[in-house]
Structure formats: structure tokens, C-alpha cells
Queue: 3 jobs
Job 1
Amino acid sequence: MRSHLLVSLLSLLLAIGHEITGEGVDRKPNFVLMMVDDMGIGDVGCYGNDTVRTPNIDRLASEGVKLTQHIAAAPLCTPSRAAFMTGRYAVRSGMGSTGRVQVLLFLGGSGGLPSSETTFAKRLQQQGYTTGLVGKWHLGVSCEQKGDHCHHPNQHGFSYFYGLPFTLFNDCVPGEGSDVLADLQHALRNLSMLLGVGLLTLVCVRVCGLFEVSLWLLVALFFFNVLTTAVWYMPFKLLPTWNCIIMRNQEVIEQPMTVDTLPQRLLGEAQNFIKRNADRPFLLFFSLAHIHTPLFKTPAFAGKSRHGRYGDNIEEVDWLIGKMTETVDSLGLSNNTLMYFTSDHGGHLEDADTQIGQKGGWNSIYKGGKAMGGWEGGIRVPGIFRWPGRLEAGRVVDEPTSLMDLYPTVKHLAQDTHPDRHLDGHNLMPLLEGKVERSEHEFMFHYCGIYLNAVRWHPPGSDSIFKIHFFTPNFSPPGAGGCYDTKVCLCHGEHVTHHNPPLLYDLFHDPSESRPLTPDTEPRYAEILEETAKAVERHQNTLKDLDSHTNTHGTSSQMTWEKILWRPWLQPCCGTFPFCGCKEGATHI
């Protein structure tokens, strides 16, 4: 009896000591960051959509803080995600494009997020956090040889990675067409066929004796035809094998991947990561494969929305977000977990076909979309933070904020006070908690590739948010709302129109950017151009140490043809190259 009493007393004292030390009370917060791929801000109920059902995302907003002017640093996946991860404009890490190709195209390329860059995951890992990425990466894998994995998530601070080192794209599903250099594929295929027909014709002429054909000419044509066919077939026809893969950490576990079951597997991995780490500080980046095309056809959601397959996918996204929220809440973690929901950029307006209809997002009243430089529709995205007990429920923030703000925000909350590089994001907590009313983003810079496309200015003491465009993409056909001929707008040469003086809008009064201001309609016109020019000069002074990051000749640019194009010796593979193939949970095939 006495021994039982002593054990009970000891247990009570240990419990009291546990509370006194603050463990469990003052524990560093957890982070669950959820990013959708290509979602338009107009696709979500709490941002004004009343025809697509998003109750779970709406609930996050009602229980937390909704940002109405949350801005991506770029209107395309690779540069936007590089900026999000590092808190810095993509041009600083060499992840901005100089020409036609604006995102990474092959897992067998050598470009990617440089090892010299620091992600928020790496900072938190150094603070004792367990860090995980489930889903899409699209920031490269290897540099010089297969397996060096210099760009891999594990090398950028993520203790655990499960998902797509590339992205979900049309080539992953038979019958959906190709996203990768389709015109080049077409030209190479036609050249190969033409050479084949020509070679066969000359062989027939020689055999029939119609006239003399040099044997050396036939041999040269044969080898040229083989080379042309290989250049076309190997990298392009086998894209599902090369790019559509799943990795767990640094091992390829499925090649090519089974797309139909991908949403359930990603959700399960994300939930299990939270459950495994519920008793320690963790950061999870749940990077969804939705709603980038090809669109999913999950039976539970197929045909249930009012907007075809695209609407079905939005409602599936909402269900996935609901399951993530449910997991956090069921484990009793909600009061110590900052949950965040966003998209990497705006919806893809041009993506549609006659069978499915619209396959890209709705950007509400905002002009433009994915890959359209600084037009608001391509860079204004949902931004929702929930942290019960810390953030006021139902709060709305109309100030300019950025995806790049996540880096300094999580760093601050993780109590990381170590010196850092030049950051372009700002700690959001004072704004989210209502301790300040003004954003620290007086100026924001909008890039189209490596080219400074537009600048927004939120003058002190004013509600106005002025935005000037130095150039704008040329829509095709003329007068359309996007680049329908090419499916993606480009940022250089004949593909853009430069404006002198720049186009000027006041987003506070004209959020759809439909009424350019003039000296006659805006008294501050000259001042706006002058102050913006000074801000651009100050910003560009911070880029002077980048040297080669901002031109096509330097080795630091990650988006050159040399680094983007496929290299067989860098190709991730399960099995023996080129006979790559395996299914998750099975042996190599």
C-alpha cells in the first residue's frame, strides 16, 4: 500500500514538473503548409465562388485569417516554388527563365534549386524540427551524375520526402497529349518519317537500277535517320517513364506512376507523417498534385460538381484539405499548429478542349492567369492561416502579402535568430495578429522569367495600390484574354509589348486592371513613376552580386537549355537504365 502511494506521489510530482518546465505548453509550434497547383483565386467559396463547394477551405478561413491580396512571386510553378521555399525572388537563385522554357522539363536535366540556397525546411531542421514534403517538388534532382541528388528535397532540409520530384502533367496519362515542347516533338517526328521514306525510296531506286545511288549516301541517311529517331523517341516518347515517377526519399519506388490512386496515396502519406511526429515539433509541406492537368477522375467526385471535371477536382481538393484539418484536430494539435493554404500561382486560362471543356482555373475579376507575367490573375492567390487561440477567427487582411513571407514567418515562430541572406519576404505574424495595420511590402516586384515586368506600390498613408507594367504579354489571337495559340505566354522578344510610359493602374479602385491611369486622371501620376523608378533602382542594386543569374551566359542560371534538356546519365531509374520500371510495394519489373 505504501509503495503504491509513493509511486502515485512520484507520478504527480513528475507531472507537475512537466508543466513547470513548460514542455507541451511552450513547445515550438507545428506547421502544416498546403499548396495547390494552378488554382485560381476565384475557385474558392470564401473568395467569392458560390457555384463550387469548398466548405473545408471556407472553414479554415472562418476559423483563421484570410488574406485578400496574397501574391505569388512568379506566375509559373518552378520559379514561384523556388521563391516560396527560399523567401527570395527566383532570379536570386537562378531559377528565372531567359527564353521560351520557363519551368524544368526533365527529371534527367541538371537544373534545379542550387545547394547554395537555404529553404525554410533547412532552417527549421537546424532548429530541431522534423520536416516532411509530401507531393510535388519540381525543383530538380541531380547535378552532374545520377544519384548526387544535389537538388533533391532531402538535400534542401526535408527529412522525409514522398511524392513527385517532377509534377503531374499530361504526358502521365495516355490520350491527354503532351506538355513538353510539343512543336519540337512534332518537327522531329516528321523529320524522322521524312528521312525514313526518303531512305526507303532511294533503296528501291538502287535495287531497281533506275539510276545509280551512292552506297555511302544510303549509309549516311540511315545513320542520320537513326539519330533523328533516337533524339525524338528516347526523351519524348518515353516521357511517362522518365518524368512520371514517385520517390520515397531518394529511391524511385514507382515508374511510371499510377495516376488514378495518387490523391489517396499522397493524403495517406501526409496524414501518417503528422501522426508519426505528433509528439515533436514538425513542419509538413503538403504539395498537392491537383489541379494541374491532367485532371483526376476519382469516382467519388466524378460528375458531382456544376463545372465538369475541373469543378470535380476543386471539390476533391476541398475534401483533401478537410481530411488534413481533421487529422490535426483529432490528434489535439490544433492549438499548437499553424495551418496554411494557398496556390503556387493563378489558374491556367488557356487550358481547355472540346471534350472536357475548361480545364484551368477561374481567376475571378482579375486579369490574366498562369504564365502572364504581372497581370493580377496569374499571381493573386488564396492565402489562409489558421491557428486557434493565437490568430483571431474570421479576420480579413487586405494588405499586400507574398508567398515569400512564409520563410521569415516560420523562421520567426521557430525562434531561429541566426543571421540570414537577403530576404524579400517579411514576417507576417504582426499583420496576422492585428498588431500592425500596414504590410511591410511597400513595393513588390513582379517578374516574367528574369525580366522585371511590373511593380506595385502601396504608398504610406494611402489605400491606393498602384501597379505599373513595363511590358505585357501579347495575347493570341489579338484581343483574347490569353495566349491560346501557344497555351503559355512568353516573356521576351516579339511575344511582349513594351510600354513607354508604362501602363499604370490603381488596384484599390480598379482591381481588374481595366482602366489605365493618365496624367489627366491621376494627380500623382509623375510622382508614382518617379518613386517606382527609385524603388526599382534600389531593388536592382541588391541583385548586382548575382552576376550570371541574370543573363544567359553564366553558369549559375538553372534555366538554360544546357541544364533543362534531358541527359540519360542523370535519369532517376528503378531497375537498370533504360529498362526502368517498378510499382510501389512490388519488386522491379
Note: Residues 182-208 form the longest helix (27 residues).
Job 2
Amino acid sequence: MSRLNLLRANASLCRALLTHKKIAKRFFSALASETTNTPLQARSLSSLAGPVRDNNILSSPFGDIEEAKEHLTEYVFKSSEDYGSLPAITCGATGRTYTYAMCRTMIQRFSRAILSALKLKPGDTVGIILPNIPEYVVVIFGAMEAGLRVTCANPLYTPDELTRQFSNCNVNLIITIDMFMPKVEIMKKSLPSYKSTVLISDNGKSENDVFDLKSLLLTNHEVDMPKIDINSVALIPYSSGTTGLPKGVLLTHKNLVTNLKQFGHEVFRQYKERERNRSTILTVPPFFHIYGFNGILNYNLEIGKHIITIPRFTPEDYIKCLAEYRPKTLFVVPSLLTFLANHPNVTKDHLSSIQDVTIGAAPVSESVLEKFLLKCGKTRDQLTLQQGFGMSESSPVTLLTPYVFPASKATSAGQLVPGTECRVVSITTGENVGTHKTGELLCRGPQVMQGYLNNEKATKETIDEEGWLHTGDVAYYDEDHFFYIVDRTKELIKVKGNQVSPTELENLILEMPSVADAAVVGMPDHLAGELPKAFVVMKPGKELTEKNIYDWIAEKVVKYKRLDGGIAFVEVIPRNPGGKIMRNELKVLGGTLRKSMT
């Protein structure tokens, strides 16, 4: 899991903020931090920065955070009685909706059914293969309340991709819908710990190892519920990290709840004005992604919002939701914001209710933000745009723009959330650097993962002995400690906010008998951000076409991992003396080939 940007002053006034500190201090995010009683209006430009320890180690300007005391389900639904009969989550495509009271009851019933009827035990693992549907809330929180670990997968993954993930984390129970049952039938033969499947279906029928969710919920199961250790693993998302194949990220209840508190701090939200009212949000980023789960679903359930989502993005369904539900808040990725800014069927009226937009998963350009504001017919003092930075390994948020901040920070990923430290380390010398100097971003805080599942080597490469998480992202910070992400040192390819491991694609290409060597890099694309491009070395006397390779990959991976950046045949893959692929050289070569073709 990367978020966003925000503005509260209009264009002319914002420019004044850069030079007139007396004017600026009225507009900056100065909600009192947990370690100061300084009033909101009194914070000056210089007070935006947090403390700096020796050797350029930065701390959050908003102080520390009280770490979690409750497990995740308990924390998210602690105020559910306050909202009772009010809607919690609605499917924008079908209109199916559950109230907060209904959600809480179903979660409790499902957690008991897991331990009683399905005979699983705390510490077992549930694999979820679902789109964004209201029942997602029931099954994921029910599993966690029963003390189980949960891993969520993209339902569009191929059986091979799903099997690889579920086998790695030893899945015992699969939860899915009718559409994906053929994949489950293929997968379960290769999962040694598999016991059963829970099917969310209209059929209402249980047989053999398949249990109907509705039937489980309608039965009263008597069982002693376990006491959940907040330091136990709750969620295992899969991430490529800084390099290599996707790895299971071990996130505890404490990691997830503490991070909710961190980016729910008052400096990032205006509780009195917006957060505690019954406003509606519209979201399509998938719940199987850490941004969609902890950054959107969990946060908005905890503060009592009405969440509108759709199982599959289509322009028609999304525009219908805008018109019918009139959301005040949108959670988007850059490609969706581009859609809203450019699609002719999205009108100013469709966006008239929008007050807040949060952008996550990847950076967004200033030009797209401007186009979106133009489509809305609003100035930046009329619409809140927030952006931030995070990754699966940090639950996910480490940086976020405050609710109010100066226009000069429009391209920033924000400031450190409470309880978080960071360093920017020179790529060449390894030393900590100061303001306006680029280097790899390292973060440390209570939201950082336990480590990678069954992969001590990768854990040590990512989290050093002092607890610093090496993000693999190149960044710098300014004098006010706003951070800017400018590049990546890691090999990860980002396609519309989705992670693509080049190693995974390379291994698949190398399975082809005619291929001697292969490398995959991300090539820039104005719509997707990046697209995977393969460079292939053929064995002597062998022949393959680009279509042969493309089709081979397309059969084995989800659509966004396909080689839509192209395929090039080369004589040799450039490698350093240690055998590591020199991907920057291939990116230059790929750009040269593209220019020569045009």
C-alpha cells in the first residue's frame, strides 16, 4: 500500500502565503497536537516542522500517538451502537445495504460459526477472494474476531497466482462468491491445509466442504470466544516490497489500529465540521488492498460514515452512484481522478456535492488536480484535496497532508503522522541528508510490520537492526518537513496503483523453453503510470514472436500485470558484476526503441 494533497487557500492568496508569514499562520494546519496546547490560529510557518534529532532524524510535528489497546474489530466497531440503524455500507450497483447494527450482529454470528460449525481455531488462516461487496465487512471482521489471520487476494488473479499466495500463508478456509468457485476448485487440490469454503450466494445451500454464509448466520452457534492478543497477526497482505516476488506482510491488530489513530489525528481531519456527521463517501479502491482496507474501509466505519462502493468499476455504475447518493467524500487513485476530470459523461452537477477527495496508491500530477477542479467548478478553498504516502509494510500510512496546509505544498505527500520518525539517506554515501536533498526514505514507528512471512532474509533487508523500514522510494523534505516522493530505488512497477513484481514476470517468461534470459521494467504511461515491458534473449536456433510471449503471460496473470508496455528481443540483458539486472539501462533502451518506432 502508497496518498495526497490538499489546499485551503485560493490561488492568489496561496502565493501570498509563501512570503507573508503573518497571513500564513491563519491558514496552516495548526490543530493542537497531542504534545502542545498552541492554538490552531497561532502556529507560524516555522512551527510546521517537527523536531530534528542529531544526524537529521526527523520526528512527527504532531507528537506521539497512544498505541492500540483493542483488537481491530473491537476498535472499528466500538461506536457502532451510536449509529445503530444508520447505513454502514451499501452496494452502489445493487442497492443492497447493511446498517451498523446489522453488521455488528452478523460479524459476531460469523465469528462463532467459524469456531463452531467450521471447526477452525485461533491462529488458522482465512483466504478471501471477493470484490467490494457489503459482505466483505462481515467475513473479514468476523474472521479476525475469531482470532484468525486473514489474507486477501485480487479476485481477478489466475488460479496459479491465487494458489501461490494461499499456499505460502497456509490457508485453511476460503471465502468467495459463485463467480470464483471454479478457481477455488482448481486451487484447493494444491493447498495442503485447506478445510472448507464459505460461499456468499443466493442459493442458500451447504454441501460437502462448501458452507453457505446465510445459513451460517441464521444458526445460533454456542462457543467460547477467544481473547485476542493485539500483538497477534491480523492481516497478511502481499507485497513485493523493495524487490523480488510478492511476500506476505505480517500486520498485527496493534499495527492496524495504531495506524488508524495516526492518520485519524485531528490535524488531518475536521471532526467537528465533517467527520462525525452522517456524510456519505464513494469508494472503489479494492478492500483487498491495504489502502482500501485500513485507509478507507476501517477508518470510515470507525467514524460512522455511510460507505458506497461497487464490486467492479464501470463508468455507468460510478456515475450512477455520484448522481444517486451525492457523496461528500471521494476516495480515489490517480487513474480514477483522471477519469473524473476527462470523461464527457461526468458533469459539474455530478461532482457538486463533493467536499473532500483523498488520493492514494500512487502520486498524482498537478495538471490532473487542476483539470479535476475545473470540472468541479470549484477553487481549492472550496474543495479539500489530500495526498499521502504509505506501503503495505507500514499499515499503510506514514505521510499525510494536514487538513489545512499552504498551496506551496501542492505536490507534497505530506508530513509524518504522529509517532513516526524518518530519515532520508543518500543513495551514494548512505549518510542522512538534510533539507532539499534526495535519498531513500526510511521510516520507523508502531505501524511498521512484524516482518515478512517465512522470509527472514527479506525482512532483514527491509527492516534494519534499528527498526528502520527501508521504503525503496526516493524522497526529499523541505524546511517545513513536508515530504516529496520523486523516484523509486525499488524494482516494483506501479500500474494504476497496483503493484507488479518484475521478478514474477521474469520467472514466468523463463519457463518458456526457447528463452535464455529475460528482464522486465516499468515504462512510463500517461494513463497507467507505468506498464510492464519485457526484454527477452532467445536461445540459439529458437524462435518466438512477441505475441507468443504476450499470450503466455496473459494466461497466467491478472490483466494489469500483462506486458502492455511491449516486448523487445535483445542479444544480452545488462547486468552488474554481481549479476543484478541493470534496469535503468533497460528503461533508457526501452525509451529509445519507442522513439525509433514512432
Note: DSSP finds 19 helices and 29 strands in the chain.
Job 3
Amino acid sequence: MIFLGKVRILFLFILSCYVVKFCIGGDVITASEYIQDPGSIISSGGLYRLGFFSPNGSTNRYVGIWHNKIPAFNVFWVANREKPVSDSSGVMTISDDGNLVIMNGKKDVLWSSNVSNSGANAEAQLLDSGNLILLKQSSNTSKNDTEMVWESFKNMSDTFMVKMKLSTNVRTNEKQVLTSWKSPSDPSIGSFSISLEPLNIPEVFLWNGTTLSWRSGPWNGKVFIGVPQMESVYLDGFSLVDDKEGAVYLTYNFAEVSYSSYFFVKSNGELLQPFWDEKYKHWRIDWSSQESECDVYGKCGPFGFCNAEKSPICSCLRGFEPKRVEEWSRGNWSSGCIQRSLLQCDRIKYGSTKAGNMDGFVKLENVKVPNYAIWSSPLEDKCQEQCLSNCSCAAYAYDAGLGCMYWRGDLIDVRKFSYGGTTLYVRLAHAEGKRDQRAIIAAAVVVATVIFSVGAFFAWKKSKKQGGKDGEQFPEASSENMLGESLSKVDLQDLVPYKLEELAAATSDFSDTNKLGEIRSNESNWIGEDGSTLLMEFVEANFTFTVTPDYG
């Protein structure tokens, strides 16, 4: 019995040594130190683990990388996304040609690093950055050096991690992109992808197949100006580098090393930034690309304006009207808006007017600027002049980090932010400016008349009160009569008449975005017990009409 016990102990010791050598292997994989399901390796600092796993709701086996010290399981990178192992016979090792491969129990290669210049004696290593790299012996035989021939950071899955590079090479058209899982239980390549698009000014695009779904706005040297949260959270955290050889890449790092966070695109197309809450021991969402319907690219169509705090959220930019009124009234804004009046260049072109009347601009603050910006002069005072001198210029904006930006053709994906963003100047036909001026004058006259009438009424009331018991100083009169007599003194023929249909069309069904002005009251100074103060304002973007009768 004692002899049999010693044999068992010896057998378990030999088996444990075998498992350690061939299934754990420190932080490296070689031809002789491979991992076999359910084995794994851990980076030298213990931060990341590489091994076999099955997604929730699936029995298929994949090789992936995840946090080793954070208990909440989440996979950042998957090797054999398209070809899982159907059972627990999978092995990850170095093949005879020096590639990192995954094989099933039948020795079929399901995945390979597919490097042509690896050679013998190659090995793979998992770094504390979460990057899995493939190393080969250096061609310099005088030194015992190795060189990296492949890395997982350049073969991304759905996650953008610290020190990764989201890159595009405009010469070779090669891109490093993020691709979503097909579903939470299937890590194969899904419909959504994230790419860096250099264009005239670099932006990050989220695609649904070949359809643009979301965009970051232009890069200004520090942040993407279409993501207001970056101003405070990510300042100096992101870098966009042009290597001057055709490649442009985006990378980031956090100043606080202990801050565990990353970006990933969900299978439903939502781009998220989780961070690890050490206090409550779970992942929290720090930022999302889908905080409102206005985050959807082009939600309001060409020349539409999206404001998530309004209902409906879409309206036409000033000077524009719905292209298809029936669709617009049903909440389908995809057709967008069309210009109501010809711009000056077009009027001259079609012979409807002579040169002389300049177009103007509508000022929109705290907005996400349209897509496809064109960079030009960095001088702020030259932006408007250059836009007016170019008949194809539909809008301009200025950013201190970029300089002037211009837009031609349709203005798409313009939305209102509660803070941040940029000031956008949309070109407005001269005729629209005259229309607004007439409406402002008419409204001002009406408001002034009402204010005068109300003021006169209170003045009469106060004088009557001070005139003695018999009130003989003023004859008895009702408030209705006083207002009616005052209004009758106004020549209403001098006012410009508008039909209700014209006003509805001009304001996109009386949208707040297109309103010319409003009447405000300062309730703290509205009217005293003795009727001494009356304050009302007519407010427009660059126009304030104030009447303050003071009967002190």
C-alpha cells in the first residue's frame, strides 16, 4: 500500500510538470511549449492572459486575450474568429514554418499568423500591454537578437486598447480597423467597423457595412471636435501621427496608469468606452457614441439640423424648407431640406438679379460641423471673405487648432450640442435676410404697440388711483376700451401681411430653431404694487428691442 501511494504521488508530480511545461508556459509559446485547451499563458507582469474560452451561449472554443487581474471576464482580442474549435482538443503552438497556429485534434490548421518570413526557432510572447507578438531570430548571426514579425495589435478585433494604432495608409490603401462581433455569442466579423479616414481633415468613422453610421468630427490637433466630452477627459491623451510616408495613425494613452479603460464596438454598432470601477468591482460606461438619436449620421438629412432637446428633433437650417413635406410631417427626415431662395451667385447665373446684394450667414453655436470639411487659410478674419468669394461655399467655421474649414454641396450631420462643439456659419441668401428683416420690423411694431397699450392702461389706472375719491381726473373706462383705442391708432396697413401657411413653411412648422424672436418678461421687474415698472424684450440673434416704461 505504501509503495502504491508513492507511485501515485510520483505520477501526479510527473503529470503536473507536463501540464506546467506544455499548458502554462510562462508568457511565451514555442514549438515545445504550447498551450492546449484549457491551458493559458500570462504576461510577465500578470496583467493579461491568453487562452481558450467559449462565449456566453456557445460551446465553440476560441483563443483570446483578456484581463487577468480584473474578475469581470471580457475578451479584447480573438485569434480564430472565423474558425472555432468545435471541442476541447484545440492547441496553439508554433508550426514548422515558424508561424503561430491554432489546430484542432485532427491537426487541421484553423488559424495562422500567416507570416512568410518567420523561420525556425520562432516564439510568441504575451506582453503586459496585452499585445501578442511573434519573434524570430535576427538575420544578424553575430548577435543573438530577435525581431518582431507579427503582432496582435495590428490584427485588431473589436477593441481599441492603449498603445494600439488605428491607422490608414493612403498610398497602399491598407487600414487597421476594428470590427464588431456578429453577436454577443459569436465573435466572427460582424456588420460594424471603425476606421480612421484621413480625408482633408482626419476623422474616425463608424460604418455599418458600407454605410456611414457615426463620425467623430474633424481632428484639431488635440481632440475630435465632434465629441465634446474629449475637451475635458482626453486632453493630451490622444495623438494623431503622420509618418510622412503615407500612413496616418491614431493612438492614445492615459496619464493615470492605473486607469483601466478601452474602446470597443458592440455587435449592434454602438461604440463604447468602459472603465473599471475598482470600488464597486465592475465595468462602467464612461462614454457612448449613441447617447441620443442625433448621434446617428445624417439623421435629419441634407441641410437638416438635429437637436436632441427639441421635439421633433429635426428642423431645417434657416433659409431652407423640407424637401418632402409629407415625409417630414411623419417624422421621416432622411430627404432633408432644400434652399428656399437662390444664393447671389445662382441669381446672377440664372439672370434673375444683378451683382451688388451680398449673401449673409446664419450663426449656429455649439454644433457638430458637417461632414467632409475642406481646410483652408488659418486666418480667422479671412474665413468669411473666402467663403463669399467662392460660389460653391455653403458654410464655414473656424477652430483655433485647425484654422478655416469650408463646406461645399450638401451640409450633412449638423447637430446641436449642449456644450462644446464649434460655431458654424451657414450661407444665407440675401432674399432670406430681407424676409427676416421685414418679419422683425413687423413683430417689433406689434410688440411695441402692445407694450405701449399695456403701459398706458397701467398709467391710467395709477393716475385714477391718485386722483381722489371721485376719480374725476379720468373718465371711467375699461381695460378693453383702453387697449382697443391704442391699437386703433396703429395703421395696420403698414405691416407686412403673412399667411399662416407662409409662416409655417418659413419656420419649419414653427420650429424653435428657426424662430425669429420671442417675448420675454423679467418677472422680478414686471409690475410693482403701484404699477411703476414694466419690462419686455423682443429678442433675435443680433437684435434686441426693449421698452421700459417707468412711471415713478
Note: The chain is about 20% helix and 30% strand.
